[in-house]
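Q: UBA/THIF-type NAD/FAD binding fold, please. Structure only.
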Amino acid sequence: MSEVRASVECCVCDGMLSWSDQLTIARQYSVSVAYIEAVALERGILPARYQRNRNMLNCRDQLALFSSHIAVVGCGGLGGYIIEELARIGVGHLTVIDPDFFEEHNLNRQILSTPANLGHDKVAVAAHRVAEINPAVTVTPVVKALSRTNGCGLLAGAQVVVDGLDNIDTRLELSEVCESLELPLVHGAIAGWYGHVTSQMPGDKSLDTLYGQKQRPKGIEGSLGNPSFTPSLIASVQVAEVIKILLNHGEPLRHRLFTIDLLDMECIETPL
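A: Structure for UBA/THIF-type NAD/FAD binding fold:
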């Protein structure tokens, strides 16, 4: 609507649109704040919430992120931080997939887990959290376990998939589905003081190389434990990989396994 565009342009200050103006215009014209964000970005106007992004991401980059659709499989230790960071940086559509609900043992490390959320579906809590921190982001919550059977349907429309899972079998199934859909997959795993990340592009089969034919219900986190700090670190590396892939910036961790040892403060890169 030309009236919306004119209203957005009238409110610009230093090339930016404030959240209060974004909200006021949306209410005035009975449209979503996501619509106002799209109008602003398409006209080279930066929503002010992203102003600390602009020394590394220009308005065109921000529009590309807003126009992107990312699927996050697993909304626990890794997935919660991944969802939080993708929403805050301005990725416009998130599909979040997890069959589980929050339990007391999640409270030590999962950012979406609180005593009040115990017993609630993880994806529903994720959707509520995103609505609180960035209402311009669309969230599609899916209370299902991804498998070879339903994976293609669950990941439909996504441009990049992020692995927030905690078992090898499902990760290998996710890898297979991503391969069939020709989707990049950003894999992360944690255990105790350690974690690793790699980005698998179509045709790479990096997870097959990494895990081979190991068929175990859980990874080594079952024996090494899950502290509060490892998930946030590894999730942040995964989010950086997603942004690099979406914007074609830098060099993703393709054919490389980036391992972090927080106990001895070492980073190791291994070819895959």
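A: Brief note, in case it's useful. The chain has eleven helices and ten strands.
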